[in-house]
């Protein structure tokens, strides 16, 4: 399994319970897909550098995990169709050229 990092920016107008539910849904998707969560860093609400989908603030979360390529594709698909996220990016950790 390879190590990855998911950085996501969620809409700032959600309730705290909704943020927890989103995080639980992502965690469940990773573990059910054969992955392993290795870290979670919640940055909270921060100002964006520019407007994204008419929002000036976002709720930042960085999640570290291990998984296979198929899990990454599924995670990308699920997050892409969700309206709760302004932006997200999945990074592969490790060797850089």
TrEMBL record:
GO terms for cellular component: cytoplasm; ribonucleoprotein complex; ribosome. One of its GO terms (molecular function) is structural constituent of ribosome. Gene3D superfamilies: 3.30.70.60. Signal peptide: none annotated. InterPro entries: Ribosomal_bS6 (IPR000529), Ribosomal_bS6_sf (IPR035980), Ribosomal_S6_plastid/chlpt (IPR020814), Transl_elong_EF1B/ribsomal_bS6 (IPR014717). Belongs to the bacterial ribosomal protein bS6 family. This is Small ribosomal subunit protein bS6. It comes from Candidatus Solincola sediminis. The lineage of its organism: Bacteria, Bacillati, Actinomycetota, Candidatus Geothermincolia, Candidatus Geothermincolales.
């Amino acid at each position: 399994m390879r190590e990855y990092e998911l950085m996501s920016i969620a809409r700032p107008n959600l309730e705290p319970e909704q943020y927890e539910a989103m995080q639980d849904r992502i965690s469940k998707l990773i573990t059910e897909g054969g992955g392993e969560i290795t870290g979670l860093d919640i940055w909270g609400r921060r100002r964006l550098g520019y407007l994204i989908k008419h929002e000036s603030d976002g709720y930042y979360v960085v999640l570290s995990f291990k998984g296979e390529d198929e899990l990454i594709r599924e995670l990308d698909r699920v997050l892409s169709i969700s309206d709760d996220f302004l932006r997200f990016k999945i990074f592969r950790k490790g060797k850089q050229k």
